[in-house]
User: Fold this.
Amino acid sequence: MAPTGSGSLSMNAPRNSQYRHIEANRFAGAMGAEITGVDLSQDVSDTVLAEIRAALLDHQVLVFRDQDFTPAQQLAFA
Assistant:
């Protein structure tokens, strides 16, 4: 999903955010978190995508378990 318009979200999402739409559970000490609360087989809103980016900045490694999506859907998310 490509950002559009002047109100598009920056790739530099804020760090240490309080997530409202996802949950990040640390699993490896200082690095890594499992993300829950998002279905990557569906279109992901800009707000949720910004939270995922912030979680990536906060945790460096993200794991999304039990996602059932096609290679095309995975590419669209990436």
